[in-house]
Amino acid sequence: MADHERSTVLEIQNLTKRFGRMTAVDNVSFLLENGKLMTFVGPSGCGKTTLLRMISGLTEPTEGQIVLDGEDITFLRANARDTAMVFQNYALFPHMTVSQNIGFGLQIRKKPKDEVKSEVERLLELVQLQGLGDRKTQQLSGGQQQRVALARALSLHPKILLLDEPLSNLDANLRVMMREEIRKLQEQLHLSIIFVTHDQEEAMSISDILVVMNNGIVKQIGSPTEIYERPIDEFVANFVGYINFFAGTVYSLSGDEMIFRTEHGDLAIQQPPMQVSPGDRLKAVIRPESIGIARPGHQTDAGKNVIEGCVVSNMYIGAIIRYTIAVGDQMVYSLNSLPWIFLPKLCLLL
Ligand SMILES: Nc1ncnc2c1ncn2[C@@H]1O[C@H](COP(=O)(O)OP(=O)(O)OP(=O)(O)O)[C@@H](O)[C@H]1O
Ligand SMILES: [Mg+2]
Predict the structure, then answer these.
(1) Are 252 and 183 part of one and the same domain?
(2) Containing domain of residue 283, as a range?
(3) What is the pTM of this model?
């Protein structure tokens, strides 16, 4: 297959890194398609940085294989790889100007001066830093430094861009703006990116593919919607947003509908997973935005999915209200301003 036709840019097979007796990355495998943005999320210490460092060549794997664009690069030295990494603290060269930082990699590769100059100009424009080329990097804001780091990483046209929490030093508004810019740049230049973040909302909004990690292990890979609506277990469900769990038993299955018996009453669940049978004990996962509230006796269009509760508190979050509702001895969260109970999106944990 010709290089430009290859659809998989990165293939990670059974990658493991042990530090002494501690396994930081444990038998991780995944594929990244060309031109896609894949985001890794997971708690602190779950192995995200170690994984990126192995892909970029800064850390040697204990086991496994890394194939970049068809070439096995597992043991290739870092500066011989077509990868570029942006670190959380940007790691800019403080004694150099913005232009010198961006052009550094090109200069090292002995590109002609003219070429370096015009490439740096092009990159400055790309990350919207025109006119700031002669500044020292300390004279820039956090967001501007972030753009320099990005431009420097892009200067060598890496086959893959590795971004390790690149926005975590920025304030909330700038974070949102920069993540939109990164996404735009990625689509415009058809970049293949691995992005690491702690921020669930950032992960949900920026990614083509989301990977949830815990304890060095990949828990689930899928589109943000798949992971949000069909998490494979409680950890993943909890990690990508607020969640309500209802424990219960499968009472009956007919056609596309399952009746799920909980201590608070029966819930009708559409399109349950294939592998459930009557009598199975499960947990139903209901996102807060899928629960509405109504006064007793008021009509709702939630069909059978109505349970009784008592509103304990409400909190305004922008345009919506978060209600905390006591249902028996369980607290249930509802993110909604609509006056009815409605449970359209349910999924089950086996
Ligand atoms: N050089 C090292 N020597 C020993 N242990 C290490 C080394 N680097 C990382 N670790 C350990 O490996 C585990 C994974 O670390 P890693 O930095 O990959 O986590 P992370 O997911 O990036 O966390 P964070 O979200 O806090 O950045 C941690 O327990 C860490 O202490
Ligand atoms: Mg890290």
Answers:
(1) no
(2) 242-349
(3) 0.85
